[in-house]
Amino acid sequence: MLRPTLNSLSAARTRLPALTAGLSTSAAACNVTAPNPRMHLDPSLQALLRDVDMSLTKGATKHKAPKKRELDVFPQDAALVDVEPFEEEEIEDERLHRKSPAAKFGSEKIGSLVLPYELQRQISLVVGEADKHMLREDALRLFGTNGKGENSAWDPSYDVKYGSREQRIRHMEGDGTAFATVALPPHYAAIAAVLRHVRQRLEPEYRLERVTEWMSGAGSGLWASMHVFQEKLPNGTYDPDVNNVNMSNSTIKSYTSIEKREGLRMIGKRFYGVNMELPEDRAVWHKAFHEEDALPRSKRNSAMALSAFALAAQPSPIARRRIVKQMWDSGAELLVGLIDHNTKEGFEAVADAREWLLRQGRKEMDEAESSAFAVRGSHVIAPCPHDGACPLYHPGAMKLVCGFSQRLHRPEFTRRTKHTKFGHENVGYSYVVIRRGERPARAATQVGRVGEVGMRELEKQADADITPKELLLQVEHERLLQAASTEGAEPQASPATEPAAGEITPEPLSGTALEAALRHEAYSWPRLVFPPLKRSKHVILDTCTPEGKIMRMTVPKSQGKQPYYDARKSEWGDIFPHPPKNRPQERFQPPARMADGEAPVQTGHDIGKRKLKGMKKPVTYEAIEDDLKLKQKQEVKDRARERKAMQKLQRREEENMNDVD
């Protein structure tokens, strides 16, 4: 390999300027030469290129940023500014008219209820000031949990006795905050649902002004009653949006709370006192009820006695009876004091108090001293369509309960305290509403049974009854009328005739008269005490009837489009106005313990059950997850069994080989 020497390097350096000069002269010669001649393109290709340039130009202008508009200067005088008021278009839901007016009256519900904004704000402020870890511990201490989050049983009832004065002072504020966070929202939802139904069943001119609540807790009954019983709108109706109301617009003038738990009284006063729009003397809190708190007869017609989620929490039947007796002695016309959990204990407490109050009303009717009273006796407004014995009430041996459900949108502080990810909660409750006075007589009329679906069916029947000859005469008559109108001649009016068979006649009642008739008839409509069973071409309804029995009604499609549509759209807790096509079947739930020598009753063993023979279970994510877990466990057991069998077989082969050797 040749290596460069010093002489060769020096020679290359001497020749480098000459090579550089030569390259520069050659580059200059290239620049001096003329450019390439212009290409002659075909005219069609030139037109295509111009179109491409235009499309690119349009795209570029399309994505340009718009120019910023300057703010318009308005005159200072507002009278000079002509601003048209914004009129919101009313979008009417056509599905509401498909149901008959009677079915619509019997199925008025709130839907998903939201806690009032004022109450949410007050609870959020209290929770913001509290220690979050202590709040969670107080909630667990008061209501208990099994540590599984959503599956835990949060019992909204609360009655605690402190061991010492120091413990009472230390836990009192925390107890109130935990109760308001966990128990107050579901309490409010159940009470608001019951009061909303009560307001619908009462007369339009009824005005509730006084409320007395036993075991009021943090004031859930105060907030629910003031939000439900509002002043009417200028058109004479209530605001349909129960979640958008104002406490200052309520008809309630006086509220009395009977609460012995000091921590709950403190938190209730704080929630109410912060609202500056209400007078301070409008609500008072007492530790016990006294005889002087009873209302005079001149003020009883506008008063209500309320006790929610308190009866089942009492330590003994005597304590429950004491609360119910105080409610009766208060003199209030409305006794909405029987709201409790939809458990066996809660329903038993409600049913027992119901029987006692009705018995007191019958006793008052028999007494000679009360003959001079304008209002005597007592009757049930809801949910029972009768004043007899409850067919589901078997003290100490109940299998089923008469309960209902209301969905609540959980606030953020409730979700965080319960450590749950679900934004809603179905609040179960049992209730009864009793009013002083005799029960109204059973209505003999049936109005409001035809809605849009029924009207369409009647129109089709009327069109089908018209003969072709009548159709031709009708067309000829319309042609003659049109010809007479075009010539200027005034046609003579035809004499009035009676409506033909099949012709649709308007509803004899409408507006307030129809609503008053439906309100009277609703006292004898059966109520759905269990969810309806919607099958193919028929609906099964388990109802509590005016006869005091649990009857299973079947509404087939052949009964008519309107009754069938109303049955398909019915929900748990509705009152159903249509009579059944076929004779209903009585359902009797026998008690758990039968008398000696008495054969168990087999009729009605499937009452309230949604599963029939030969029917598959509904598929849910929980069921799928449970099935997968069972299959995985079974597979593990099978593999372990096979492994043991193989090991046993191998040991036997080894023993046989050793014997042969």
From TrEMBL:
Biological process annotations from GO: translation
Keywords from UniProt, A to Z, are:
Iron, Iron-sulfur, Metal-binding, Mitochondrion, Transit peptide
The main location is: mitochondrion
Skewed-composition ranges (Basic and acidic residues): 626-655
Give the matching PROSITE patterns.
PROKAR_LIPOPROTEIN
In the UniProt record, the signal sequence range is none
Q: Does the keyword Manganese apply?
A: no
InterPro entries associated with the record: Mt_RNA_Methyltransferase (IPR052571), Ribosomal_Rsm22-like (IPR015324)
One GO cellular component, as annotated: mitochondrial small ribosomal subunit
Q: What is this protein called?
A: Mitochondrial small ribosomal subunit Rsm22-domain-containing protein
Taxonomic source organism: Schizophyllum amplum
